[in-house]
Write a structure and sequence with these properties.
Two copies of one chain form a homodimer. Chain A is an alpha+beta fold. In chain A, about 55% of the residues lie in helices and about 10% in strands.
Chain lengths: ~210, ~210
């Protein structure tokens, strides 16, 4: 299997099987695969491996991918920071809607959530968000900064998963941005991860109840 | 408030407040507002009103909107049928990706979930689904029938909400199609409604546990 295909296949199997498969591979090959996984899933995987092994994999990964994953490893798994991915779309605010759609073509293969575009200032502070729905609704010549939703709702990295779920649900979002100090955009939590969390929580509470 | 704005405002308030507001309005005005709500929310609202009042509102609504809502009222609230909306995007399969994007411009204002396009045959049987991601990934001249994902995963109207959540989560979907006899597309359940359900369930189970 090519590393791309192996990474995709790995995200489909149970976490326990995933850990065993990665642990059984030579470190070089394992690193090739892990760096092709979505950063949030790669971080979850590395967090579950013995420290020595995850350090070795991080060392052998491409520097950019390793840095993303290392940043995510700083957060507790059961927080917004631990749930977020650092893979999101940002585009320059001066682009027009038509230009933005064109840029998205180039990103559609790589990025997990293509439907929301985040606009940040040079200091990485979140300025607004534009959805593909906006791109279609507005004149193709309109600039992103004109059509963006300003000051979108957001969460902080230490917010609880329940808080993330509450915000996502209340505003019917496909993703919620996670902001650090000075409003810097650190990552996004996508609705599928919120749903996974709430489903796990529901069953945990139900089983606790049944005991 | 114009009926459009009133309908939008109503979907933001608590279900209990919503029922009281609608009950307090003259029937003509209430019907004008209800027919502008997403069909699944309108059905939930009418199901919670006294029978005589919901019948009166259905009578005063535009015929198309009333028919959609009446169809939804046939399903138990706690089933896939009861969770689904009949508002979804279908386009002819012979359109190209570029033509489909153009058609979506006209629909972006009205439809709740613009990111998935469902392709049906003349008997309304679901043939496949195309996402906006696909539209961006493939050549603008490619036809929808060439790029669609065939036989997408689906649920049945009497499936439980937990089954809908399981499917949505497993395949990371933004919406899951609900198929009736002969594979006819009856509606879709969007991920925000799945999340709302799972969150409510989680709390119900937690509170049950705490009691």
């Amino acid at each position: 299997l090519a590393p791309e295909a192996a990474a995709k296949a790995l995200t489909e199997v149970e976490p326990k099987v995933r850990r065993r498969l990665i642990a059984a591979l030579p470190a070089e090959r394992a690193a090739d695969i892990v760096e092709r996984m979505p950063p949030d899933e790669a971080a979850d995987l590395l967090a579950a491996l013995p420290q020595r092994q995850s350090d070795l994999l991080l060392e052998k990964m491409e520097r950019d991918e390793a840095a993303d994953v290392q940043q995510l490893l700083r957060y507790e798994p059961d927080t917004a920071g631990g749930m977020m991915t650092t893979e999101f779309v940002t585009l320059p605010a001066h682009l027009t809607a038509a230009e933005a759609l064109e840029r998205l073509r180039g990103l559609a293969r790589e990025v997990e959530l293509i439907y929301y575009i985040y606009l940040v200032d040079p200091a990485a502070r979140l300025q607004g968000v534009v959805t593909i729905r906006h791109l279609l609704l507005f004149d193709p010549g309109a600039r992103l900064e004109e059509i963006m939703r300003r000051d979108p709702v957001s969460v902080r990295p230490d917010d609880t998963p329940e808080r993330v779920a509450e915000i996502t649900e209340k505003y019917n979002l496909l993703a919620v941005p996670v902001l650090g100090p000075q409003g810097k955009l650190l990552g996004i939590v996508t609705v599928d991860d919120v749903l996974t969390h709430m489903t796990a929580l529901a069953w945990k509470w139900k089983l606790g109840h049944a005991r």
